[in-house]
Amino acid sequence: MQPVLSIAGLAKTYKSGHQALSGIDLTIDKGEIFALLGPNGAGKTTLISIVCGIVTPSGGTVTVAGHDHSRDFRAARSMIGLVPQELHTDAFEKVITTVSFSRGLFGKPRDPAYIEQLLRDLSLWDKRNAKIMELSGGMKRRVMIAKALSHEPEILFLDEPTAGVDVELRRDMWNMVRGLRERGVTIILTTHYIEEAEEMADRVGVISKGRLIVVEEKNALIKKLGRKTLTLNLAEPLATVPDELAQWNLALAGEGHELVYEFDSQAEATGVPSLLRRMSDLGIGFKDLNTTQSSLEDIFVGLVHEKREEERAA
């Protein structure tokens, strides 16, 4: 299957000399939900802005549904909808007018039934004749989403779409994302709510300092890079970790009532059985134990930290 979005060698260096992107290679399949994670300033918005034609790249190629971004820009851009971080729309226009106008900008014929359903899906139909300036921040965000979907794009970019919005909008929006994916729309999102990426995404890319440091299927990434944490609730508190347990790099928590051990769940020898035997030999009892799997956020933080350490060493 030909990818709906193909990016090769994409780079961006601004006149100031700041290199925002360097050698980005990425392919995304039709109907996929792809989450792009990275700290502020990592290059997420620059990448989206280049694909959406807002920023000119310094090098590399972008192909959208078979259309070369540089040679056939209008066709490529017509395949894309963008919900930016910032709210930009005409404050004096009515909701239904601005959404219908956005559809017309892409040369789509009038379709009042589609616009009505779109506004209903986003709980905007009752506000269709209200001016943008009269809406709350959450409602304005809904209008931006409606504008992005007005021309029925094949790819929808969501740049920090739920930052600072109410719980109701977040729920409505993710329900809409699921529905769009079922209809074959490709969703590419950036988010600081990593639990959303963990719940929604098929694959995850982590970007740091303008470079993609990992692209992986979400569950495989968690399985491959995730660590587990074993927490032992002690029968009697400890003041310090005994020297005899030093090889396990344990930590004390809960005012000495808990021993915490991190281990690689994929390793041949996790160290857990030998730890429990050694504790028994030392007469250290425990009342309960539990294990937790690293979250996507834990993995993300670890990858970025690891990349920074490699750069310092170089």
UniProtKB/TrEMBL annotation:
It comes from the Bacteria. CDD domains: ABC_DR_subfamily_A. InterPro entries: AAA+_ATPase, ABC_transporter-like_ATP-bd, ABC_transporter-like_CS, ABC_transporter_ATP-binding, P-loop_NTPase. SUPFAM superfamilies: P-loop containing nucleoside triphosphate hydrolases (SSF52540). Residues 5-234 form the ABC transporter domain. GO terms for molecular function: ATP binding; ATP hydrolysis activity. Keywords: ATP-binding, Nucleotide-binding, Transport. The keyword Ion transport does not apply. This is ABC-2 type transport system ATP-binding protein. It comes from Sphingopyxis indica.
